[in-house]
Amino acid sequence: MKKKLLTVIIAVTLALSMVSCGSSEDNVKKELKEKEYEEIDSNAEKLNAMTGQSLYDGITAANEYGFSVECKSENSGQNLTDYINESDDNEKKSYEITDVLAVGGSKSVTFTVANELDKEAIRIKETLSSKIDNGHAWIAMKEYGESQFPNGFDLDSITGRISEDALDENTWFLKATCTVTGSDGTSEEFTCEANVSGTNEIPEVTNFSVY
Q1: CB atoms within 10 A of CB 106
Q2: CB-based burial of residue 100 (10 Å sphere; 0-12 exposed, 13-18 middle, 19+ buried)?
């Protein structure tokens, strides 16, 4: 009887010991995982603080932290990732980071960047927009088209937008698809472009063509 009792006690002790070891091991794994997540979040914060630094430094840090990198232009909004990946270090250093979005959960970072040409283009666009913004310029283009095609002119300046550029500090160049209705009631799609200057109050279409 004593032997049986002793055997039971030993078995229970071993079982409790195994449970304790298993629980301890799980806790260690959990702590390591939490530290890993904390480090990832910390690295994301470091990347998010890199506004004003060179793109080269940003990419170097992101690679060190194991973050995937995407780059886009501050001026045009275009995705520059492929271009940047093929560029040399000097080209990467010529771009300044103007905005950062680093996400720890996905270990990804998007750098919005601008070089000197971009900065000049942005300055020109801001100066032009202070006189006549893009919205008023598109409206002026639409109204001018309607005056030229009284039977029907529909400018698709949203989904059909092709180009919206500041030619200089005084003139927008706008290009989009449009639908023109003839005197016989039939409609056909064309491409329409215009130069628009002036002010929000008094816009002026200086060039207009449909083809």
Answers
A1: 11
A2: buried
Give the mean model confidence (pLDDT) for residues 45-50: 97
pLDDT-derived band of residue 17, with 50, 70 and 90 as boundaries? low
CA dist 143 and 127 (Å) reads 24
Could you give the CA distance from residue 5 to residue 14 in angstroms, rounded to a whole number?
14
Closest CA to 90 of 55, 47, 53: 55
- Please say whether the beta carbons of 140 and 118 come within 8 A: no
- Look up the domain containing 99 and give its range: 2-114
| Phi and psi angles of residue 33, each rounded to the nearest 5 degrees, phi first | -65, -40
CA distance 67 to 53: 17
Do 12 and 110 lie in one domain? The reply is: yes
